[in-house]
Amino acid sequence: MADSMTAAVIGLGSMGWGAAVSLLRAGIPTTGVDLREDVLAKFSKESGMIAKTPSAAAAAADVVFVFVVNASQAEEVLFGENGAAATARPGTVFALCVTMPPSATIDLAKRLQDAGMLVIDAPVSGGSAKALTGEMSIMGSGASAAFDKAAPALDAIAAKIFRLGEDIGTGSQVKMINQLLAGVHIAATAEAMTLAKAVGLDLQTVFEVISESAGNSWMFGNRGPHIVQGDYTPHSAVDIFVKDLGVVSSEAGATACPTPLTETALALFKEASAKGLGREDDAAVAKLLAERAGIKLPGM
Q1: Minimal CA–CA distance to 238: which of 190, 199, 204?
Q2: Where in this chain does the record put each 3-hydroxyisobutyrate dehydrogenase-like NAD-binding domain (predicted)?
Q3: What does the radius of gyration of the chain's CA atoms come to, in whole angstroms?
Q4: Which residues, in sequence order, are CB contacts of 39 under 8 Å at separation 6+?
Q5: H-run or E-run covering 37
Q6: Quick check: is 175 catalytic?
């Protein structure tokens, strides 16, 4: 099926870019859409096709991956002017890979289904490095027919596809839990490394020890080197976790479930953003803590 399948990727950020080049690597003709001309030119050099609008990209695609930042952007690229839903053929699979409130995913999916489309609630995880190698994890829910039709494309971008049932919204709920842990672990990493610096420890040594100890986490292993090296190139920005932990906080509030660690981490990300760090790597929350402590981390 991959030989005859075509795909479109709307949003060529770090995760969308990885998905798009992974699709090309698998031999699936893929059209990329992004607002940035330089990114489109780069994708063209990878032998990808480019389109100026979502509607142009979706017109000939069997599977459309949506990798924009939030629910309002998803609404725009699907149903706004030059939106993908207007030109997609009935039966096209839309994989909604956006981290957004489950209620927003459900609403967008219903509107796509009413237009004759198949939909997978398909948020992803794994970071930009795994995206580039086609080894993301997909937390997916939706009709079996959608998974079956999109299988070659899903296999091209993901090493693990969790099929979480047919109910749209379940994938987004599980991603919300993942982001709760991810955001709290990033904040904890920043706090730990700042304290290590404050008491005079060598950060590289601390990183090596903790990486082999019970205090380790995936986020510590991934973000710790950013702090050690003072490299805050935005693979995932502070503002992403302002948004994602905001979703967690809102959804938890609706169920009256206490999330004190989320609230603390969210406050740190919001403060970091307000101090001008919003577009830096999310590990830059460590700079905020270091400033409070009156110390300098690498890169400050």
Answers
A1: 190
A2: 169-289
A3: 20
A4: 12, 17, 32
A5: helix 37-45
A6: yes
As a whole number of angstroms, the distance between CA 271 and CA 163 comes to: 37
pTM, to two decimals: 0.92
Q: Residue 158 phi/psi, 5° resolution?
A: -135, 140
What is the tens place of the pLDDT at every residue in 188-246? 999 999 999 999 999 999 999 999 999 999 999 999 999 999 999 998 999 999 999 99
Q: Hey, what domains does the chain have and what are their CATH numbers?
A: 7-167 (3.40.50.720), 173-293 (1.10.1040.10)
pLDDT tens digits along 269-283: 999 999 999 999 999
Helix axes 203-211, 218-229, angle to 10 degrees: 170
CA 284 to CA 118: how far, in whole Å? Answer: 39
Mean predicted confidence (pLDDT) in 172-195: 98
Q: Do 123 and 218 contact (CB within 8 A), yes or no?
A: no
